[in-house]
Predict the 3D structure of the following.
Amino acid sequence: MNAEIPLQNVEEARVLFGPLDKTAKLFQEHFGVRLVHRGDVLKLLGSEEGVSKTRAILERCLRRMRQGHRITHAEIENMVLGRGPTMTVNKVEPAEDSSPGSSPGRADNGAGSPKRIQPKTRGQKNYLRAIEKNSVVFSVGPAGTGKTYLAVAAAVEALQHGEFQKIVLARPAVEAGEKLGFLPGDYYAKVNPYLRPLYDALGDMLGPTLTKRYLESEIIEVCPLAYMRGRTLNHSFILLDEAQNTTVSQMRMFLTRMGEGSKIVVTGDVTQVDLPGNIRSGLVDAMQRLHRVKGLTVVHLEREDIVRHQIVQDIVEAYERTQARMPSPEDRGANPVRTRKHK
């Protein structure tokens, strides 16, 4: 059976075929229907049942597009698989409209309606705008400000809209003073705990099934920073998390992995550097060296951008308030705390 769907412009065909024709291949795999674009017509070739199901989904997508909605590959995939629609990232909705009690950047618009990842504060809103407009973005701020979560959300949305072909998420493999050589297990067993927050963010946005599919096909890659050496990443959204724990040479290596059509986001908290005291943080160094580079910007998220439990903001404020009065590690080494000996 053949059927035809009239199109208004080439953009409609581009969206319905999906990035790298992934959506068109999805219809062929699940319904046995081949999509053919000829001028202002989309032809559906296949069995009567398959063409009927495909046509219903595509016409629904076209109606939404013509009403001003953006359609992603993940949303069409959910329709094909009979699931509810996935979320999209909303960069234009005012931050003040969001409820303050929900998790960082996440809002549920009701049963059966799309979930949207959106900024909760003015600082987060400026952060997403910076990601959209710049090739390289450094985001620094305390825990709970949504640095990583919003960057992953922006990467997922850009991937679904065909702006990039791949997402690469990287982290330094050593944190909190632990050396990998002293940890049990093979290399992946050692580094996996450090990468877990990135997997969690992906699972929250895409769901476990789609996350697994993207990881297995290497459309999304989560890796230790050391695995970036020697590579050139074209048409990729590249995120370096916990960047305060990179050395100067590691940061330089990471930034120079950027290839044609790629974007880099670097996140970190300069108050939580876990490097030895004699090693300079690559994040701090890069922000000082590169602040005049065109196309690169630094976004500072503050305490008021924390959207975790209220007590987190109070804890951060208490640490910042008392940090200047606390002895440095060198002072503690020179004047160790004396303990009373009990007989």
Notes: The domain at 2-81 is CATH 3.30.1370.10 (Ribosomal Protein S8; Chain: A, domain 1). Residues 84-115, 328-340 have pLDDT under 50 and may be disordered. The chain has two domains: 2-81, 122-321. The radius of gyration is 24 Å.
